[in-house]
Write a structure and sequence with these properties.
The complex is a heterotrimer of chains A (about 140), B (about 130) and C (about 100). Chain A has about 140 residues and is mainly alpha-helical. Chain A has five helices and no strands. In chain A, helix 1 packs antiparallel against helix 2 (about 35-55) and helix 2 packs parallel to helix 5. Chain A is elongated. With about 130 residues, chain B is mainly alpha-helical. In chain B, about 75% of the residues lie in helices and about 0% in strands. Chain B has helices at about 1-10, 10-30, 35-55, 75-110, 115-125. The longest helix of chain B is centred in the C-terminal third of the chain and has 32 residues, at about 75-110. Chain C is mostly helical. Among the domains of chain C are: about 35-65, no CATH class; about 65-105, no CATH class. Chain C contains five helices and no strands. Chain C has helices at about 1-20, 35-50, 55-65, 65-90, 95. The longest helix of chain C is centred in the C-terminal third of the chain and has 24 residues, at about 65-90. The chains are: A mainly alpha (about 140), B mainly alpha (about 130), C mainly alpha (about 100). Chains in contact: A-B, A-C, B-C. Chains B and C meet through helix 1, helix 2 and helix 4 of B and helix 1, helix 2, helix 3 and helix 4 of C.
Chain lengths: ~140, ~130, ~100
């Protein structure tokens, strides 16, 4: 696992993969894609990092302390979005009626909490993939 | 001839049924645990294909609304949405079974289901 | 021998499945029963309800968000189970002392 070509190519390609993943997540309500697709791309970039540079280097870049916070924080963000609906007098997880900014169709900041929820799901899926991979390939 | 025409009309469903049977055959006949997991994944894929095929309308486009245009047929968006959930559950099941298999390999030193059963029954006799 | 028996049994299952499938409406026909008023409601009203052009996103994170919430909990459970099987049940000493699993 010490190949120069793989390392150099991964160094070039990983930032582009992560930017593309963030693009897919942020445009989840406008174009094909969404939380799961973008989160899978983010997780795949970190898996490529692990495969090219080894587990130790990847854990230095993406330690479990960070992915732990991201995983639990994404669920808490979704639940707090739902509780906002209850606070304003509607049902759990109410979008437009509860006062979220609906905006104009086709803009990035529109459609109520859909971009926030997509972002939360994307971060959740990406960190889940990388945690599962790191935990499974860890040597005994 | 009639039967072949009917089969061609339902070709995706026939493919998904065939994939399901192939996956079930893999699960039933192989005693290697990894191959069993591969068989379960093939069965999951067949179910995804079946659901997405149900939502397809011929001539329909992807369910992303083009503003200001009428008389466009969109495919049914509901099965695709449900399958997104299914894919995540499939991923979770695969990760869980792989971790259990690694633990079994560490305990018994083999991936073969029959050998593991023999080792377990030997241990109980003593 | 075992493989032959299973192959014959599964051929029977395949026959039953295909016999049931042939009763379904043809692939892509517009009078499919699943293309009912629910799908028509989503197609007609989702742009007014949520202002999101992507119908899949609108359904997944607005109409049926509770489903998605449950599915993130499934992911969370998967992580918990994998960590407990791989690290805690394996009795890794540095984890049992209370350190983090980064080691």
């Amino acid at each position: 696992m010490d190949d120069l070509i793989v390392k150099v190519i991964s160094k070039i390609i990983i930032p582009f993969m992560q930017v593309f993943g963030i693009f897919v997540i942020m445009h989840g309500h406008l174009s094909p894609g969404g939380g799961f697709a973008g989160g899978s791309i983010l997780g795949a970039s970190l898996i490529l990092l692990t495969l090219a540079f080894g587990l130790k280097e990847a854990k230095r870049k993406m330690p479990h302390t960070i992915s732990k916070i991201v995983e639990t924080g994404a669920i808490l963000l979704i639940v707090s979005l739902g509780l906002f609906g209850i606070l304003s007098g509607y049902n759990f997880l109410t979008n437009g009626e509860a006062g979220f900014h609906l905006g104009r169709t086709g803009e990035i900041i529109s459609a109520g909490f859909i971009p926030i929820a997509t972002l939360a799901i994307g971060l959740k899926v990406g960190s889940t993939l990388i945690t599962l991979f790191h935990t499974i390939i860890e040597e005994d | 001839m009639e039967l072949i025409k009917e089969l061609l009309d339902h070709i995706n469903y026939v493919g998904s049924a065939t994939l399901f049977v192939i996956g079930l055959y893999t699960v039933l006949t192989h005693s290697n645990l990894l191959k069993k997991v591969i068989g379960i994944n093939i069965m999951e894929t067949s179910i995804f294909l079946f659901f997405v095929s149900i939502g397809y309308i011929s001539g329909g486009i992807t369910p992303i609304i083009i503003p200001g245009s009428e008389d466009i047929i969109y495919v049914n968006p509901l099965p695709s949405t449900l399958i997104l959930t299914g894919i995540v559950v499939a991923l979770s099941i695969t990760a869980y079974s792989l971790s259990l298999i690694m633990r079994l390999y560490k305990e018994y030193g083999t991936l073969d289901m029959d050998k593991i059963m023999e080792l377990r029954s030997d241990g109980q006799d003593e | 021998m075992k493989k032959l028996i299973f192959a014959l049994l599964l051929c029977g299952l395949l026959f039953i499945l295909i016999a049931g499938i042939l009763e379904m409406p043809a692939l892509g026909s517009i009078d499919n029963q699943s293309y009912n008023e629910v799908a028509h409601y989503y197609i007609d009203n989702s742009i007014n309800d949520t202002n999101a052009p992507n119908m899949i996103s609108a359904i997944m994170t607005d109409y049926r968000f509770f489903d998605t919430l449950g599915e993130t909990i499934v992911l969370f459970t998967a992580i918990t189970v994998v960590i407990s099987v791989r690290i805690i049940a394996a009795g890794k000493s540095h984890y049992m002392k209370g350190d983090d699993i980064d080691g």
